[in-house]
Amino acid sequence: MEQRISLITLGVQDLATSTAFYEALGWQRSMRQAEGVSFFQCGGLAFALWPWANLAADAGISPERSGVGGFALAYNTRTREEVDAVLAEVAEVAVLGAVIVKPATEVFWGGYSGYFRDLDGHLWEVAWNPGFALDAAGAVTLPE
116-123: which pairs have CB atoms within 8 A and are 24 or more residues apart? Predict the structure, then answer.
């Protein structure tokens, strides 16, 4: 697993209100055609707002606050196969306390992803998204 964070997703109670808040701060929304989620390009990192219940359901965990901390770090891969390889790496060190919470699977938005929790319970998504190009350094660039 390369050392990078591709995408930070915050679980929000009201997507429209939260999106308006960030736009009021001067943030420029990307991928306006995406429904049910708001994306923002933040330098080499992507930032997303997604309804809390959807984030929990996607990770396959309880929507109660004890089940998801309201955000997920994302590690985007260059290939679908790399998702499985990274999750296999996590499984190999699971003895240290990491847990696979959702094995990789095809997802509704056309990619492939799975989730794990790190030693402190932080949720990570490992995802291949055919619409998010990664540069040589692993930085994601959102389409317009």
Answer: 116/87, 116/90, 121/69, 122/69, 122/73, 123/59, 123/61, 123/68, 123/69, 123/71, 123/72, 123/73
Tens place of pLDDT for every residue, the chain, 144 residues? 888 889 999 888 889 999 998 898 888 999 999 999 999 998 889 999 999 899 989 988 887 765 567 788 899 999 999 999 999 989 887 777 778 999 999 999 999 999 988 876 778 999 999 999 899 888 888 887
pTM equals: 0.71
Domain boundary assignment for the chain? 7-141
Q: CATH top-level class for 7-141? A: alpha beta
